[in-house]
Specification:
Length: 427
Amino acid sequence: MAGLDAIETASRDEIAALQTVRLRRTLDHAWRNVPHYRRSFAEAGVHPGDLRTLDDLARFPFTTKQHLRDAYPFGLFAVPRTDVRRLHASSGTTGSATVVGSTQADLDIWAHLVARSIHAAGGRAGMTAHIAYGYGLFTGGLGAHAGAERLGCAVVPVSGGMTPRQVRLLCDLRPEILMATPSYALVILDECRARGVDARALGLRSGIFGAEPWSEAMRTELEQGFGIDAVDIYGLSEVMGPGVASECVESKDGPVVWEDHFYPEVIDPQSGALLADGQPGELVFTTLSRQAMPLIRYRTRDLSCLLPGTARTMRRIGRIAGRSDDMIVLRGVKLFPSQVEALILRDTRLAPHYLIELHREGRLDRMTVRVETRDGVADDGEAAAALMHAVKEVLGVTARIEVTAAGSIERSAGKALRVRDLRGTVR
């Protein structure tokens, strides 16, 4: 692809017209070929023919992660298995596993949308992309890989882990693009510093980071550390994988939803009521072009809002505050790890490596935040006191703060563990 797709700058009326045609086709495809949708549509008293405008989608039932689990492995597929060209699956560590399938057409669209996302982030044909997302059943590595090649980039398929090798390859191969989770990008940055490598001199231009919520303060940390433009890419394996939405380097104001292939909504997480653009709630997506496994009003559990387009005509999503199932409720106060992260990164003495532990003492829930100092900074107790005050002042909860030495908190090559809930165990 040489430049922008025409639809990226089309009028809202043109986008809505395309969405309406594709949505009618998707509803009919799901209803005809997936027994679950025939049942759920009948229970809701709707039929694909009832969709006359985009607003009518709100009459159709939601799809949840539990529906995917109940249908394991192939119950939500809308095509014969002989038409499926790739399967991705969850680990099942938080419940029953889920399986997602793609036809060749699905894979082609996925590669195109990731290529569009990399282009939006400043990537161009002829550049080299260092991909440190995990490969395999996780969609990140293979999705990023296919998109980078589709754009015309050379790919370094290093995957996650073996961080010293990551740094050596960055030094030797001089890629312009780094793709990883933001937390693992920080691990790579720390390894550069430990080896005396100036990360700003590696020649990187763009960092495309996703798969977990991250803050504006984290963006600043990564941009200053690597000397790059850091942009957010959004996706989830159930809907497609990375590339459902992506930030544009010229604005960096929230991932643009590629609305020609996904119809976004935001709902109240409790009532399920549709919310207007700009109001925060739970993101819901309906696929508009998937063949193997169309999803109707899939509840992502990601909390954000829909915003008007800026760099592109299509709408943006605000920075993900967290997931509804990651929300910490502490003595009636609701907060997210990303809010704690933002407070940590306000203090130049503290590193962006932390772990929140929840535990119970007697009948009261308590929160402990373990956070590292930066290299060369001695803990004199002032940083802990300052963070304790900030958490109380900004978030409204009292937390214990344990400031530990640099390198003491376990690192991850993928999504970082930010919260450990020990309230069901004896402490």
